[in-house]
Design brief:
homodimer, alpha/beta, seven-stranded mixed sheet, two-stranded antiparallel sheet, 12 helices, DNA-binding
Chain lengths: ~325, ~325
DNA sequence: TGACGTCATAAGCTGGGTTTATGAGCAGTG
DNA sequence: CACTGCTCATAAACCCAGCTTATGACGTCA
């Protein structure tokens, strides 16, 4: 050690977009992995072989790692290439979810299937459902409207939506519904936080008294939390107020403090222990997520297809 | 109903990269969300205000949705814009994981912290850990080598790695270690699969006799599965053999058949019910994930920092 | 040895995104 | 009321990344 001759220069850290290949390149890499040939991969993504060659090469230069072993009878991924490809796949997956959602947003008035959903559902569940729906019924044009429960109900009753998804304790008046999933709020913190190694259950009063990382006032998550802790002294002033669930998550992961988040948002962080859940005594932070429709008008056609994607058990 | 006048033309479906804005645009959008101003966002990402204006505008054209409400005293996201921004954040998150991993791969010989990890860990856990480590110790240069348990042990003993991560039942000879997480294999299928609504536990013999979607022979996941089902007639011929965990996952989600996957890979799909877990009677598909180091040489410095990110409980 | 596959190289073109320079709209202030 | 300061939009010139076409080199197989 010792030999550090300085802070290693100014360490040029250009923006993420300059250090991560663009989507086209990532798709190309994945295609190479699948086909074992640059030319075949090029054909799949609709470019010529030299373009593919050059693109892969520049990606290797950018990352500073050899990704593929070229040989006169094809190209296979190197070990590092396999790893990079797996990470690339996750970017592409997120891009597909983005695309599915965006495509639904675009189809405004005239679409076949109009879905109204609460924010949490629209944000975390719809993209996956839409990808699945697209796989099953490729032609379906979907439009997605996000709003609170009242707005969803209103749209359904006005005939402006074919099916809705809401979170909450009860089905709004005039609607029928079925529970399709659950949204449990979890208190989480980075593993380095003292609460993470605390034995036993946390006292709700202590939770209420502790400043948390939260979304801004008015978010559904915050309302539920407010209600649940009303009997324990009410919520303390937030440690940080952030504009999106993902921002809250990032702050919590980085150790800024404890946060309360939907389990839908943090499943991966929990699995990988970037966040740990802290059990709280007796506070029930669970909401049902329901598909809803105008009373008596069970969804048919595409709406029914969408519904069947979301629930494994009969309506009951 | 009725009025379908045709299959809606040939529906030009250009590649994903043409339908999803590039990373720079997504980062810009997120910056706009944070600052409430195009100009400020532009400054943050290092471009000029007109460039930002044009970029947001072209993104809106591409998506066919208004993303920001412009006013003479700033720009706020529209409802659709908020939704799109959340989806964008998930792409950026995946890109950050990619970057963290890639940066670790790049730092070959001379890096400060050399990590050797099994594939599952390198793929699913390391990127998150590296992001966290970077947040805590910004200067640390990390290199990541992926291989099986034997390769990890060899690198540690040869002094080519400072800390290792392996999956398996025991700590390799010559190493000390501590369990940092668990990798449970789960049998999963799309909610539409018959097994998904099956009551009770699945008979292991039936599982063994059923063709599954699997990774190619030789993968760690497949070895564990093979061993677990050896006493029940052995694994049937696979329904599909795919080259990556993500590909297996995608096939399972799309309803191609049941698959066996690490819970690390499917936590989000389980939470959103795009996949459901099917309990199997008495088959224990759980592996410990351990941090390991040469016996007697507890990690120090950056390696220790990394370790402390991964475990919430004392070494014991 | 010739045909077919692989990937690499070279030259020229195109377009998206950038910059600088400028203008227009609204708010707050004296 | 007009001045100052913020906002965003528009226009014109520029630059470079990535594309295509054309070609070449290398290895394998019949």
């Amino acid at each position: 050690m010792a030999g550090r001759s300085g802070p290693q220069g100014d360490e040029p850290r250009p923006h993420l977009s300059h250090r991560v290949p663009d989507l086209g390149a990532l798709e190309l890499l994945i295609a190479v992995a699948r086909h074992g040939s640059l030319g075949a991969a090029a054909r799949e993504v609709g470019i010529t072989q030299p373009a593919a060659s050059s693109r892969i090469r520049s990606m290797e230069r950018q990352l500073g790692v050899a990704l593929v072993d070229r040989s006169p009878r094809g190209s296979r991924l190197t070990d590092a290439g396999a790893l990079v490809t797996d990470w690339a796949r996750r970017i592409v997956e997120a891009a597909e979810a983005f695309d599915a959602g965006a495509q639904a947003l675009r189809g405004r008035r005239d679409s076949r299937l109009r879905v109204a959903a609460s924010m949490t559902i629209a944000e975390y569940l719809m993209p996956g459902w839409l990808i699945a729906l697209r796989a099953e019924r490729p032609g379906t044009a979907v439009s997605l409207q996000a709003g609170n429960s009242a707005a969803v109900a209103q749209r359904l009753l006005a005939g402006d939506a074919d099916v809705g998804f809401v979170e909450g304790l009860a089905v709004p008046d005039g609607l029928d519904g079925v529970v399709v999933a659950h949204d449990r709020l979890a208190l989480v913190a980075a593993p380095s936080h003292p609460w993470a190694r605390r034995p036993g259950l946390l006292d709700p009063a202590e939770l209420a008294a502790t400043p948390l990382i939260l979304r801004e006032r008015g978010s559904g998550t915050r309302q539920v939390l407010d209600a649940a802790l009303a009997g324990h002294g009410g919520l303390a002033e937030p440690l940080l107020e952030l504009a999106s669930t993902t921002a809250v998550k990032a702050a919590a992961v980085s150790g800024a403090g404890p946060a309360v988040l939907s389990e839908l948002a943090i499943s991966e962080e929990l699995a990988s222990r970037r966040l740990v859940a802290i059990p709280v005594e007796g506070v029930l932070l669970r909401r049902d997520l329901r598909a809803v429709w105008p009373a008596g008008h069970r969804p048919t056609g595409p709406a029914r297809d969408l519904l069947s994607l979301t629930r494994a058990h009969p309506t009951g």
